[in-house]
Amino acid sequence: MPVKVAVYGLGPIGMLIARKVLERKDLELVAAFETDPSKIGRDVGELIDIGERIGLIVTRDSEATEILRRSGSDVVLHATSSFLDKIYPQIVKCVEAGADLISTSETLANPWYRYPQLASEIDRMARENNVSIIGAGVNPGFVFDALPILMTLICTRIDCLRVTRSLDAGKRRFSFQKKYGLALSIDEFKRKMESGEITAHVGYGESVGLIANALRVNLTRIVEKQEPIVSEKPLKTQYFEIMPGRVAGVHGYGIGYVGGKELIRVELLAEAGREEFEEVIIEGEPLVKWRSTGIAGDTATAAVIINLIPKVLEARPGLLRITDIPLPSAFLTLKTD
């Protein structure tokens, strides 16, 4: 029998996840939840634009617990918000229904870093209800943490680990470009970042903490920072015209220190027109250098969420991190009893 899946949140990533679930015979989409009134009551197939209705209606998230129980959902694939304090009530609904949960929430990837009390409470509830919960995606979840963690396996000594992700923000979806502040003035960017109206990347500290946890290192402190990249020439994306002196992207980083020494650095350069690559450099014994030609962020995020299904279904109850489960991978066939 296929695993019964619910999708919680049908924004750009949630819709992509739903499409990928529908492509698999070993997964069955049995429920979909939203808070947006314009999406509630619509057929999922129509909403995600697959060219046909599938007979499954998007329901309001207030009904999630009841519908999850009634549909027999095994796992919820969750994609609504970056911040754990905002999604906590949604997690509670899934836990009370006895469904495992895999979320794109960046702060859920390592929740003890930013929300230690909430993390402990969710862990307690998950254990009591015999469910497993994890936050992951392409970043956090892969580029800034799981990937470099795996690469340390061949090292006998690590002096410094650096991960860089460079991407062309101008090729990303509208919501991405907006949250990175493209075309804003520097003052507007700073004001909106401070108010939380835009966030750019979320999760530097979470990723640094995940690497440190895997290496069994106690960091003295973690520093996070994001600054605007200012355009020197006119630029144009599908959604914005960026004039010289306006924001063309973001330079952000997270650094983990042991004493006064930098041990871990994760760095993001997201700018319109920028070359795309990921790079991992591990200074130690031996020296390790790896570089890609760019990972498709949205597709990769959906893949991570779906590929974690068998690992989470088999995992111990509780709130988990990517470092708490066996080596993740794609799965070609989901083996069920």
Explain what you see.
The strands form three sheets. This protein has a seven-stranded parallel β-sheet with strand order 3-2-1-4-5-6-15, sandwiched between helices. It has a six-stranded mixed β-sheet with strand order 8-11-12-7-13-14. A two-stranded antiparallel ribbon has the order 9-10. Helix 1 packs across helix 11. It contains twelve helices and 15 strands. Strand 13 (277-285) and strand 14 (288-291) form a beta hairpin. The chain folds into two domains: 3-137 and 299-324, Rossmann fold, CATH 3.40.50.720; 146-294, Dihydrodipicolinate Reductase, domain 2 (2-Layer Sandwich), CATH 3.30.360. By secondary structure, the protein is an alpha/beta fold.
List keywords for this structure.
alpha/beta; Rossmann fold; Dihydrodipicolinate Reductase, domain 2; 2 domains; 7-stranded parallel β-sheet; 6-stranded mixed β-sheet; 15 strands; 28% strand; globular
Radius of gyration: 20 Å
Cα distance spanning the termini: 8 Å
CATH fold descriptor of the largest domain: Rossmann fold
Sequence of secondary-structure elements: EHEHEHEHEHHEHEHHHEEEEEEEHHE
Give a short account of the largest sheet: 7 strands, parallel
Tally the helices: what do you get?
A: 12
Q: What's the rounded overall pLDDT mean? A: 97
- Judging by the overall fold, what is the CATH architecture of the largest domain? 3-Layer(aba) Sandwich
Number of distinct beta strands: 15
Q: Which regions contain 5 or more consecutive residues with pLDDT less than 50?
A: none
CATH superfamily of the largest domain: NAD(P)-binding Rossmann-like Domain
How many domains? The number is 2
Principal-axis shape equals: globular
Helical residue percent?
25-40%
Strand content: 25-35%
CATH C-level class of the largest domain: Alpha Beta
Summing up helix and strand content along with how strands pair, one would put the structural category as alpha/beta
